[in-house]
Structure formats: C-alpha cells, structure tokens
Specification:
The structure holds 2 protein chains of 2 kinds. Chain A is an alpha+beta fold. The N and C termini of chain A lie far apart (60 Å). The longest helix of chain B has 18 residues, at 137-154. The chains are: A alpha+beta, B alpha+beta.
Chain lengths: 741, 156
C-alpha cells in the first residue's frame, strides 16, 4: 500500500456540510476528526467553513494555520483551489481565528502541516467541485459526465455552454454533500496550481508596509506595556520601586505581577504602562527590582561544561537509554576504536518580530480578547483561560501573522503576561512588547548537550559497536523536557552492538524546541563522529553511510502524531546521498586551493536530506562557506516551489549560522548575550551559493520547515576537517582552534 | 515639541527630544510599516531614509531630525525605483516571514539611488546591516539586481 493510500485511510472520516451563504452562494464546511481529536482531547468537533463561493464569483478560503513565514497561509488554500479548479487569481484567503473545535488543531511546528492536510484539504476542494458540477448539470439539463471544470467555471465542451462558479454557488449549496472519501482526486499530472510557483499571499501588503503582524495591531485607546522579569531563571519577585518608575515621563502605571504556573506560563514580573512603548521600556531602569535568586544564581554554562566533562570522563551513564548485542565484547576485540567528546551550546530563536501580544479585558462580557502572534494559539487560549479561571470560550484569540517563529512562539509566556496585565486594566487594550534583550534573555532555549561517543571497528573496517554517553538536563519539576534524544538514533539500528545511555544535570534554564529540535544538535554530533569513523577506516562518510544500510529493509508505516506515517526507507536515504554526491562532484571536484568538501545526511520530519558544503579557512581561522549542494526527498510533489526552495535555502543558512557563530552563554544564573552584536546571526556577506534538487519518491508530500537544516552543520564541520585536518567537536566553531597565523 | 517632515507631510509631535523616530512613527503617528527589531541599530528592520540616506530609526532621536526629509516604507511606491524594487521583491517571492523586508527595501532603494548598478560585493556591503532571520538573502540579492536592470532600461 502506498503512503498516499495510508494517509487517505486516516482521513476517511472527514465530514462535510454545505449551506447557503447569507445573500446567496455556497459555504462548504469540513471537519477532520483525526485532526480535531488531537486538538480537542476527543470532544466532538463542530463544523466550520473552509470554502465559500459568493455569487460574484469570489472564492474565499480560510487559511486555518498560523503563518510564521513557512508559507502555510498560501499553501493550504492552494490544495483546496487545485481540486476545486478555482481561478487562483480570484481566490481570497482569510486567516481563521483560534478555534480547534472548528478547524482542528491549528499550529505551526514539526513540519506537520503538509502531511496532515495534503489529502483532507484536497477532498474539501474536490467535494465543492462535485457539487458545482451537479448544480450545473441540473441547471443545464445535462449529465455531469458531459461537463468539465476550468478556472472557476463549469463548461459543457460539446455545446460551449459555460457557467461561472458564482452563478452556480447558491444552487450547489442545495446539492447532496459527497462523502469526502468517495470523491475523485486529480491525477497529479493534471495539477495546475499545485507545483506552480505562487508568491506569498500577504507579500504585496508587506512591500507596502501595511499593518499585518501581531505587533502592528492597533486598537482605540491602546496603551503599551513593558515587562521586567528576573534576569536569573527561577528567581522570585521580592520588591521594586514602583513609584520611581511611575514618576518617569509618560508613565501611566506600574505594578507587580505575581507569577502563576510554570516558566512557560506567567513568571513573576513588573509591568510598566505608557502611551508609548519606548517610554515604558525606558522607565524599567528606575524599578530597582529585588529578586530572590535562590539556588540558581550560581549556575553558568562554564559550570555545566565542567560537570558534563566529569560525567563523560567517568565513562558510566547514570541510566541506560537502549542497548543491544554485547558492546563491551565488541570493544574488547576491536581492531580499532574511535573515542570522541562532542558539545553543542544553548541557542536562542531570535525571530525578527520580538515577542508581543495585544490583549483587552472586556469587563461587561467577562471576555479576554487577544491578538497573538503564537505558533500554538489553541494551547495559548487554553492555558490563558486556565490562568484567569475562565471557560475557554471566554478567551478569544485572533491569530496574527508572525515575524518568524523557529519554535520560539510554541511557548506562550508572552500571551500570559499580556493577559495578566490587561486583566488589571479593564476595557483598556494593552500591547505588551519585549525588547530584543528580553527576547534573548527570556527564551526557551535549544538545550545544550554533551556526548561521548565510542566506536569499535573490526579487521575489515566494519563498524561493530557504537556507544553514546549523552549528558543532558533535567528541569526537575516534571515539566516537558526537550533535552532528550531518540533512543534508537542513527546508526543504532544498523550496528550489531550498541549502547546508549544518559546522565542528567539539574537546571532552571527554560528549554524548548528550535527548528528541527534535537536533530539540529544530534546531526552535528553523529554525522561528525561517523565522519571520524569513516576517516579512521580510510573511506569517506557517504561510503560508510551507504555501507551501513546496505541490506536494510524499509520500516513499515507507523502510527504517528496525525495518523499513519511512513517508516524509515533506506532507498530514499540512498537516493539523496547519491544525488548530493553527483551534484557536488564529490570525490572528483576540482576545487580552488585551500577549499574542501564535507558531507552530512539526516532524516527528520519525514524528509531525507543529504548535503555537501564547500569551505575554506583563513589564516586567522575564519571559516567561509562557498557552496552548499542539497538533495532532499520530501515525497512525490513540491506543492509550491517558491516557498519550498525558500525554506530549504533559509534552513541551510540558519544551520551555517549555528555552525559558525551562535551560542547562548550563562553566568551567575543569567544569560550574558543581549542583542545581535553578541548573538550574531548570519548576514548577507556570509551567504554561500546554495544548489537545491528535490528527489521525488512515491510518498505523500511532507513538510519543509525543518528537515533541510540538520545535515548542513556536519557538512560544514566535516569540510573544515577536510580543509585543515582539525576536527570540530564543539559548536560554534572556535576560530582560535583553526588559526595558523 | 518636534516638527518633522515625513513622507512630504509636516507632523507635530509632543514627545521628548530623545525619543527614537521609530517609536514616534509607530506609537505616536500609527505608521507601523517601519519595524522594531533590536533597538540598537544592529538589525536594520527599522530603516528609513533621512535626506535620502538609509538611517536606523530606532537610533535616531526625533530632536535631531528637524528640517530633514524623512521617508518611510509607506512612501516607497512614490518613486519609480521604489516601485521597481517592490515588483522585483514580489516577482522572485523574496520573503518568508516578511518582517524585516521594509528595512531591506529601504536600504536597497537608498543603495540603488546612489549606485544604480552595484556589483554583488557592493550589494552585500550595503545590505550587511540588515538581518533577515529567515535568511532570504539569495533572493534579496537577486531582486536588487533585477530592479537595478529595470532601472537601467527605464532610466529612472
């Protein structure tokens, strides 16, 4: 059974309902229980409109998921419009509010939206088209089989009679609603919208500076809030000079906000309110807040590093994650062993639009209304309601476009702050904005981590055993811990003897998911270590990788987050590796003096990516990346090549930034980075030429926000080794290690 | 009381002289096209033109701007060059999140006004003060070159 069919099976229960629009026209609503269930905890989901067709031929499609720059607001409606045979130029897209019961889960993360929606959205479009065809057949007194559709019209080719969807919409609304599982979806060769380069739906507004981002929200009588929180994570509020700050120019009010819930909800703070955010933010300096830092004021990244190194040196993980065969025996009889320690730092997300949220407490109706740039608006709605002791339907969340996400806005701490402040100022709209310093110092960071890896090779250079001692963190409060690794991380399944274990250190540093979570770090660690192993055997990394999976079989589809998901397929891995090798002329490339290539492969978010980087290293140790070749398999179809390429190119540069320059440091329990001068994300001059090719496979299309990122990091570090003979085992790359002059 | 000329109009502002132009635009005048990114002149999201020069409005106090001509993203399409850049931006689908793009466009238009046919090195150098966190840099380069070519043929 192909993956396409598997996915179909999951979404068979999609329910459709048609009604006549006020003023005439068709409104087609869909419920996708498989998805809605995940969002509503199994409660019955009501119906809501995805498509309306007005008599004036305007087709309006609801873009239900939050837009963070991944292109979802353009892409999901493309799926509906394709099967509907709509005229794309006449399609209007509106952002749906947060309502999981209506739309099914709405979030931006995990590269999930494409596989979750590929079939259901097309079914909605196909069902609407079928109803329009039936309406036309009735009106024309002919058979559906003698009709076709094209660009928003039903046409009878034999007679040349044509009716627009607008003319047919009201009649179509009275036609029987088809079972979505029974509608015929197009053969991909007939696609006219899917596969076309379609520009971002909001882009024309953006180039004119129109207000469309969360922080652009303007409401009558709105005031601005700045929020002072403790620099030390886990610290508690003691006191502040509220009067001194209130005496500053333009300050309306200052008040302490007691925290409630976890670090991802409401943390202790002091709000400063003004008609102008800059004035509010400036007055923070007069607050002189006293914090009780507790046990955390001694924590530092240097301290964590020393602890982790001691654990790794001890050689014994505190707990086993996974073991098979007899690794100890394999090491005892090994012809060669490789033993190396790897480290990666905490990272911040730094989306360009700083965290912000606008909130208004309506005292008459007891409703909190919010305008939230959140990747998880449903979750924010639920937890703000809980914080305020309100039923969920008394929190209204408008989803705004976001100036980037990268996983930062999966956490809604800023929504809680805005709601708590607005609750204290009844009927006054409040826009709470973080400074860039707040953003960098109050993130939920990509966890730092340490790995001691060992490999055993036999006389033939075969990898007979692998061991990993992972040193990581534990928040110790039972909250979700993103500082983990898959217990069967590649190449576990392909090595006869293996043992993975971990040791945890206690911390109060909030941690979260950064684009390609866990993969962005583990790709560097494992693909660099395997490059070491390959080098030790006298081969190269692509050769080793292909050898490891030589007789591997495809895993069966597995039950995943949204239904059946394809299992790991070694053929797809082989194909992208071979493609990247060919694209970069790997092993045969004629390179300028001092340039070298490095390789990386990674499978994440259902996408296979193999990448090659060409680097050179200056005498002062500066690494320049000149070219990146990327081969990716994300299934049968690239839905929007514009958005798809942009995601891949951006992910590669994002990964290069992580390799070359990014680390969040802590001292005395607080982050010492503050702004873009000491958290230096890539700028235009460091950007290489990026060559991308997609390798299609017989799988339903999957997401692209993340999987292109992980392999570029080891591709760069392995290239640095090839250029200099120096192995990069800690990120970001330490220039001093590479300097020769 | 500061009196500023913004997009050809005289605007009176009752704010302290040291308030950065960015916050006068956004919170006092409701002109939110100019974006807040860092507050330290490090990211370029807040770029406007002051007498034609690309300027970080988060670091330009209103008190220093009397008698100068300020132009913002809301006014970009008033010039043929601005229009050409906007069109190129859409034709190559430059943006992902789009938040930094007002600043990118303002820096690019100041560059092309001064240097209508920049080399890639000149583009990189002029644009390096503008961060795009989504890293649409390749497309920004491409769009600037397209607009430059357009400018050469249209003689704008």
């Amino acid at each position: 059974m192909s993956e396409l069919v598997e996915t179909l099976e999951v979404s068979r229960r999609t329910l459709l309902k048609a009604s006549v629009l006020a003023g005439g026209g068709l409104m087609l609503s869909a419920t996708i229980p498989g998805i809605a269930k995940a969002a509503t905890g199994g409660k019955a989901a009501s119906l809501n409109a995805f498509v309306t067709i007005a008599p004036d031929t305007t087709i309006t499609i609801v873009g239900k998921n939050p837009e963070i720059g991944q292109g979802i607001k353009t892409m999901l409606p493309m799926l509906i419009a394709e099967e509907l045979d709509a005229d794309w130029d006449k399609v209007r897209i509106v952002q749906g509010d947060s309502d999981a019961k209506k739309y099914g889960t709405q979030f931006a993360g995990g590269s999930f939206a494409t596989p979750m929606n590929w079939i259901p959205m097309r079914q909605v479009g196909a069902a609407a088209r079928q109803m329009l065809l039936e309406a036309a057949a009735k009106d024309m007194g002919t058979a559906v089989s003698s009709l076709k559709t094209e660009k928003g019209h039903v046409i009878e080719p034999e007679t040349g009679r044509t009716m627009s969807y607008g003319q047919l919409a009201s009649l179509a609304a009275t036609m029987p609603v088809p079972d979505p599982a029974q509608v015929t979806l197009k053969d991909p060769k007939d696609f006219t919208i899917i596969g076309r380069k379609i520009g971002g739906i909001d882009s024309p507004k953006i180039v004119h500076g129109e207000p469309i981002f969360g922080v652009d929200t303007k409401l009558p009588g709105m005031v601005y809030a700045a929020y002072e929180r403790a620099p030390v994570f886990g610290a508690k509020y003691v006191s502040a000079d509220l009067a001194a700050a209130k005496a500053e120019p333009g300050i309306i009010d200052t008040f302490a906000v007691p925290g409630k819930g976890g670090h991802d909800e409401l943390v202790d703070g002091v709000a400063v309110i003004s008609k102008n955010w800059w004035l509010a933010n400036r007055a923070r300096s007069k607050l002189a807040v006293k914090w009780d830092n507790g046990e955390w004021a001694t924590h530092s990244t240097k301290g964590y590093d020393e602890q982790a190194k001691a654990f790794m040196a001890s050689g014994k993980p505190a707990e086993s994650l996974n073991a098979k065969g007899d690794a100890a025996a394999a090491f005892a009889s090994a012809a060669k062993t490789v033993d190396a320690q790897y480290h990666y730092p905490f990272l911040a997300h730094v989306p360009m639009e700083p965290m912000n949220c606008t909130a208004q407490w309506h005292s008459d109706s007891g409703t909190m209304e919010m305008w939230a740039p959140s990747q998880t608006p449903n979750g924010g709605q639920t937890s703000v309601a809980k914080m305020l002791g309100l039923p969920e339907d008394k929190v209204i969340v408008h989803i705004t476009r976001m100036g980037g996400g990268f996983g930062r806005r999966l956490i809604n701490d800023f929504m809680h702050q805005a709601a708590a402040v607005a609750k204290k100022m009844p009927d006054t709209p409040v826009q709470l904005i973080w400074s860039r310093e707040d953003d960098i110092r109050s993130d939920h960071y990509r966890p730092a981590g340490w790995h001691r890896l060992r490999a055993a090779l036999d006389d033939n250079g075969k990898l007979t055993a692998i061991e990993d001692h992972f040193v990581t963190f534990d928040l110790g409060d039972g909250s979700f811990n993103p500082a983990t690794m898959p217990k069967d991380h590649f190449p576990y399944a392909f090595v006869p003897n293996a043992s993975y274990g971990q040791t945890k250190m206690k911390t109060a540093v909030p941690m979260g998911a950064l684009r390609a979570p866990t993969s962005n770090a583990l790709s560097f660690v494992f693909q660099s270590f395997l490059d070491e192993v390959a080098h030790e055997r006298g081969t190269d990394l692509p050769t080793l990788l292909l050898e490891l999976i030589d007789d591997a079989k495809a895993e069966p589809a597995q039950q995943g987050f949204f239904g059946k998901q394809p299992g790991f397929d070694p053929d797809r891995m082989r194909n992208v590796i071979k493609k990247a090798v060919a694209m970069s002329n790997w092993g045969h490339a004629a390179l300028p003096d001092g340039h070298a290539l490095g390789f990386g492969y990674y499978y994440s978010h259902l996408g296979h990516f193999a990448e090659v980087a060409e680097v050179s290293v200056s005498k002062t140790g500066t690494v320049s990346v000149h070219n990146v070749w990327i081969a990716g398999d994300v299934g049968s179809t690239i839905i929007n090549p514009f958005g798809a390429l942009n995601q891949v190119q951006g992910a590669a540069i994002d990964g290069i930034g992580q390799a070359l320059s990014l680390a969040v440091e802590l001292d005395k329990g607080a982050v010492t980075n503050s702004n873009f001068h000491n958290y230096a994300i890539p700028r235009m001059p460091v950007v290489p030429q990026i060559h991308v090719e997609f390798v299609p496979s017989d799988n339903a299309p999957t997401g692209l926000g993340e999987p292109a990122l992980p392999p570029v990091i080891p591709a760069v570090t392995n290239a640095v080794f090839a250029a200099t003979g120096k192995r990069i085992r800690s990120l970001p790359i330490d220039r001093k290690l590479l300097a020769t002059a | 009381m500061a009196k500023l000329t913004i997009n050809g109009e005289t605007r009176n502002l009752d704010v302290p002289d040291d308030m950065p132009l960015l916050w006068a635009l956004r919170n006092e005048l409701g002109m939110v096209g100019t974006k807040f990114g860092c507050g330290m002149g490090l990211c370029g999201a807040c770029t406007v033109h002051v007498d034609g020069v690309a300027t970080r409005s988060c670091s330009a106090p209103v008190g220093s701007l009397a008698g100068k001509k300020i132009s913002t993203i809301e006014n970009l399409s008033e010039t043929p060059l601005g229009k050409a850049l906007q069109k190129a931006w859409l034709d190559v689908d430059v943006m992902q999140c789009g938040y930094c793009q007002a600043g990118q466009l303002m820096t690019a238009s100041a560059l092309l006004a001064k240097n209508p046919n920049p080399s890639q090195a000149e583009v990189d150098s002029a644009m390096q003060g503008n961060i795009c966190r989504c890293a649409c840099y390749g497309r920004i380069r491409e769009a600037i070159q397209i607009a430059a070519k357009e400018g050469a043929t249209a003689n704008v």
